[in-house]
Design brief:
binds adenosine-5'-triphosphate, Rossmann fold, four-stranded antiparallel sheet, six-stranded mixed sheet, 14 strands, 2 domains, 33% helix, 11 helices, AAA+_ATPase, binds magnesium ion, Alpha-Beta Plaits, alpha/beta
Length: 309
């Protein structure tokens, strides 16, 4: 396709002020077509603000955003048509039925005969039974499914999901994973915001971490994981009261009963030396297990937040 070298999302030096608060402090981000991209960050980092600007729902104080090459301000309609956004907040009109809402949304994008696609979306999202129910008669998880159907009703090339799995049950979460993977497989660009870091780790190829309105890390998932300098060594001792040599005790992050967890620097610490020190001290070990860092470890190291969620 001639347009394939155009980035799906091109964000250049975007700033957003809310009064004195600078919610975005000059964000640059380029997301290529076909990427499964994770936009992570603690509460208040500016993720939804950035998504609102991408969707043209809010104006940047300065800088610009293009969706599939279309400027979100000067070429709003085309930029908007290229994007499907699943918002974080449940906003809906209570008096419309699910189908009416999807038909209205189709009309907004000039799609007059969208019935078969609407039926397919209702089916995939397990909403067929509720097609004629009013929005106010749906549960929270069902409303969220309708928001997802709304975002996809015009088959946008770029799909942005702002915490789609917050507060949804296991079944819907798995259905969403399948759906986003399917869309990605069909060539859609996916941008996902989530506080479930294992979800980002499972789905995303590349990740940006936003903190206090600035991108503090932008890398492939593996690149991010490799940045984290630690690895964990879990030991089970024969005697829970064993006195441990300094080479071991100085690296302990957790000790309970016979279990001891040590943190080793990947570049300088050697698990063999730690074990040798234990042997020399006559401490018996019944089990050894090493653990590679997770995205959550990297996230906490980078944002300094105690909690990811
Ligand atoms: N309409 C608004 N008016 C004033 N301040 C706002 C507004 N919207 C967001 N903010 C502020 O901007 C900052 C970023 O908020 P934003 O909603 O973008 O964060 P977020 O990364 O999406 O967080 P969360 O993970 O909680 O959804 C916060 O300090 C928030 O209080
Ligand atoms: Mg948000």
């Amino acid at each position: 396709m001639a347009t394939s070298d155009i980035p799906a999302v091109d964000i250049a030096d975007v700033r957003k002020h809310y009064g004195l608060l600078e919610a975005l402090k000059g964000v640059d981000l380029r997301i290529e077509q076909g990427e499964f991209f994770g936009l992570l960050g603690p509460n208040g980092a500016g993720k939804s603000t950035l998504i609102g600007i991408m969707a043209g729902l809010a104006r940047a104080s300065s800088g610009r955003v293009r969706i599939m090459g279309h400027d979100t301000v000067s070429d709003f309609r085309r930029a908007r048509a290229a994007l499907g956004v699943v918002p974080q907040e449940l906003v809906y009109d209570p008096f419309f039925s699910v189908r009416e809402l999807l038909e209205l949304q189709s009309g907004y994008f000039g799609l007059l005969r969208n019935g078969p696609w609407i039926d397919e979306l209702l089916h995939v999202l397990d909403l067929t039974d509720k097609a004629d129910a009013n929005m106010q008669a749906l549960s929270g998880g069902m409303k969220r499914r309708v928001l997802i159907a709304q975002a996809l009703v015009h088959r946008p090339p770029v799909v942005v999901l702002d915490e789609p799995t917050a507060g949804v049950d296991v079944e819907l979460r798995q259905a969403l994973w399948r759906l986003t993977r399917k869309l990605h497989g069909e060539g859609h660009t996916i941008v996902l915001t989530t506080h479930y870091l294992e979800e980002a780790e499972a789905l995303c190829d590349r990740i940006a971490i936003l903190d206090h309105g600035a991108v503090c890390a932008l890398d492939t998932k593996d690149g991010l994981l490799n940045r984290y300098p630690w690895r964990l060594l879990r030991l089970t001792l024969t005697d829970e009261h064993a006195v441990l040599p300094e080479a071991v005790s100085e690296r302990i992050v957790d000790r309970s009963g016979c279990g001891v967890t040590l943190r080793l620097r990947k570049d300088t610490d050697n698990a063999g030396e730690v074990l040798a020190a234990l042997f020399r001290a006559g401490v018996g070990v019944t089990d050894i297990h090493t653990e590679e860092p997770s995205l959550e470890d990297v996230f906490m190291e980078l944002t300094g937040d105690e909690e990811a969620a």
